[in-house]
Design goal:
294 residues, alpha+beta, Alpha-Beta Plaits, 2 domains, 4-stranded antiparallel β-sheet, 11 helices, 71% helix, 8% strand
Amino acid sequence: MKLSSWRYILPEPFISLRRNVGMTIAAVMTVVLTLYLCGVFALLVSNINQNADVLESAVEVKVFIEDGINQEQMDTLSAAVKGLPGVASVQYVSRTKGLEQMSEKFGSSEEILAAIDTNPLPNSYTVKAESPEQVLSIVDAVSKLENVQAVRYGQGSIEKMFSFMNWVRSLGTGLMVLLGFSAVILISMNIRLSVEARKEEIQVMKYVGASNAFIIWPFILEGMLLGVLGGGVACILVLVSYRAMLDLLLSSLTFLSFVSFGQVVLPAIGGMLLFGLLLGAAGSAIAVHKHVNV
């Protein structure tokens, strides 16, 4: 298109928005609500992922060693465990050290442990995997080694934790996709109303030979402008809400790990403005394609 055409097209979205102030406010607020919920769910999923990573990295495999083996057998077993695929680190824990660690966990109930005549704990290895997905394969391989008395890794609870984390991630992603789809439909409905209001004007432009692009682009830009406005307002609300939530929770839920406010600011601004722009463009394209007979 010629430069003179763009001089007409560029102001048109702003003129249309001013012409239909009530409709514009309603559309922007709809986009704000949709993108705000998307932002909240995105932050929720980010924090769940961060805590899931912390929990997953803390998963350990305890390998209990049979009593009565000599140093050569101990060295052979240690080398075999360290050589298994997926093993990140192996730490030897003597029965004395194991009892001390248990005493620390019992805290004020140490007198119960003091009442034990002999140390019932075997020597053991604490094994960490390179990734949580490799825990089960390591357990299976270690269980087959000689001089291994037992292997413990939180059987059952680990699988449930991984399953729960994956379910939450999938649910959050699904909700964001659903909300994004809703925003596209709502913007499309708003642009369709603009098209209907200007139907006669569009017919006149077609009669005088206006090109398809000349007719369509003002509506596309209008939808993009609605999306950016809604994204900007939603971004501010999300950041304010997240800052307030961090101030409230950081002092009380110290056992949880939260994504810092500084890590959120730039992705939230860039992501929500871009998301709003794309939603607006998609909604406009759908409305124009269906309701402008060009």
